[in-house]
């Protein structure tokens, strides 16, 4: 395996160092390599500016936001919103609840529904310590929706009216299909 090529100054320095070294074991003499010729470049070429690769920006993923107008919020507060479909996550594990939410949202979007009632169960009490014995699904829903493939189709997430489950349910308001 050939070693790195050295310029003339380093080659002379390396030869002087090698002359002072004594091998630990007797090694057959290695044939001396001829010294490479060093060519000096007097005029340096100006470096070309690096052309950036064609970077295609990732499509914007719109997280479920606060894009509702005041009319929606008033209707929700008064209980005037009727859900088009309901997804009940009671009795599911985190994995099965996540899968059920994903398929339920997919169906609702394909049908053109606007309001999805998501029944999660009540959130953990403020005085409870982590990890919560209750409310694991409810605590995970916000992250699931934000990272969902359907995040761009979700206009907002609001707490449900008491007649639809109150603190144990959420409204997922979907954007209109355009």
Topology:
Blueprint: H1 8-20, H2 70-78, E1 85-88, H3 94-111, E2 115-119, H4 136-147, E3 154-159, E4 169-174
Parallel strand pairs: 1-2
Antiparallel strand pairs: 2-4, 3-4
What's the quick description here?
The mean pLDDT is 77. The chain contains 4 helices and 4 strands.
Keywords:
single chain, about 180 residues, four-stranded mixed sheet
General description of the model:
The structure is a single chain. By secondary structure, the chain is of the alpha+beta class. Helix content is 29%, strand content 12%. The protein has helices spanning 8-20, 70-78, 94-111, 136-147, and strands at 85-88, 115-119, 154-159, 169-174. Strands 1-2-4-3 form a four-stranded mixed β-sheet, covered by helices on one side. The model has no long low-confidence stretch (mean pLDDT 77).
| Coarse shape | elongated
Q: What fraction of residues sit in β-strands?
A: 5-15%
Spatial extent as radius of gyration: 34 Å
- Tell me the number of strands: 4
State the end-to-end distance: 65 Å
Order of helices and strands: HHEHEHEE
Chain-averaged pLDDT: 77
For the sheet with most strands, the description reads: 4 strands, mixed
């Amino acid at each position: 395996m050939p070693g790195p090529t050295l310029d003339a100054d380093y080659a002379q320095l390396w030869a002087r160092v090698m002359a002072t070294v004594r091998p630990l074991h007797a090694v057959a003499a290695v044939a001396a390599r001829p010294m490479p010729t060093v060519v000096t470049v007097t005029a340096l070429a100006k470096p070309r500016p690096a052309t950036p690769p064609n970077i295609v920006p990732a499509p914007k993923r719109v997280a479920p936001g606060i894009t509702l107008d005041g009319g929606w919020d008033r209707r929700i507060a008064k209980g005037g919103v009727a859900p088009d479909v309901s997804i009940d996550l009671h009795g599911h594990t985190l994995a099965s609840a996540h899968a059920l939410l994903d398929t339920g949202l997919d169906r609702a979007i394909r049908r053109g529904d606007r309001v999805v009632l998501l029944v999660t169960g009540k959130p953990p009490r403020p005085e409870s310590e982590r990890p919560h014995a209750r409310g694991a699904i409810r605590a995970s829903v916000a992250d699931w929706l934000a990272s969902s493939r359907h995040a761009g189709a979700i206009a907002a997430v609001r707490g449900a009216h008491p007649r639809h489950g109150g603190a144990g349910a959420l409204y997922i308001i979907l954007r209109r299909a355009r």
